[in-house]
Amino acid sequence: MLKARRQGETRVEPAHPTLPKRHPKQWGQAVVEFALASTMIFFLLAAVVDLGLIYFTMQALRVAAQEGAVYGSYPHAVKDKDGNITQLVIPYAEIANRVYGAAGDQGNGFANLRDLDGNGVDDLTQNLHANVATNANGYIYVENLFGFDTSNLQPSCVGNVRGRDLQAGGSGCWIRVTVRYEYSFFFPFAPAFGNTVRLQASHLMPIRSQYYTTP
After folding, report:
1. pTM value?
2. Domain ranges in the chain?
3. Which residues cross the membrane (predicted)?
4. Among 17, 125, 153, 197, which residue's Cβ finds the most Cβ atoms within 10 Å?
């Protein structure tokens, strides 16, 4: 049986349990751990977002390359005053215009196709597409190829010989359009390895000539 409290005895209960005091060194350690963890988290977030944007940018470049190749797969005829075909040509300048216009008149989208070099200036005003058939390192490069093995194609299909290559329905003739783009990283942590990266997409199409001439 519990003993009764003696008359006049007073017992004071603590208002709350006593909390252990944190040493200042422990606070500093927590701040350092948070700084290291948050830096890694932000770096991973930047990488994930940029990888996603790069993926969608590549899709836009593939569509632009395909648009140019499909248009370029139909050669244009050059005729004399009597209406006879003298030559079939690949419309290089128009192919470049098709690439630029693949995302609309303003080139808007994940990739600004009107500013492939990423300098903020409309490419059409810089004439960057002037040498699409000769500049292998250009932002738009169009190749006129020949061969029956797509892994070993050689330049090029001629268009000025009757009954051959482009004037033979385009048999063995191919066109490949390559589009390059200077991608600027979105997040500030990503440019640790550089401010931009060059992306590239290509599309290969057989020439679909509608012209058959005889030698």
Report:
1. 0.77
2. 29-206
3. 34-56
4. 153
Residue (of 92, 54, 79, 30) closest to 182 by Cα position: 54
Beta-sheet strands, E only, within the chain: 76-79, 85-89, 140-146, 173-184, 196-206
Residue 29: what pLDDT? 67
pLDDT for res 191: 54
User: How far is the C-alpha of 103 from the C-alpha of 93, rounded, in Å?
Assistant: 17
Nearest partner of 157 among 92, 213, 207, judged by Cα? 207
pLDDT of residue 182: 93
Rg from Cα positions in the chain: 34
Q: Would you give the end-to-end CA distance of the chain in angstroms? A: 126
What pLDDT score does 72 carry? Answer: 94
* Residue 207 to residues 52, 60, 72, 132, 165, Cα–Cα distance (Å): 34, 23, 8, 18, 9
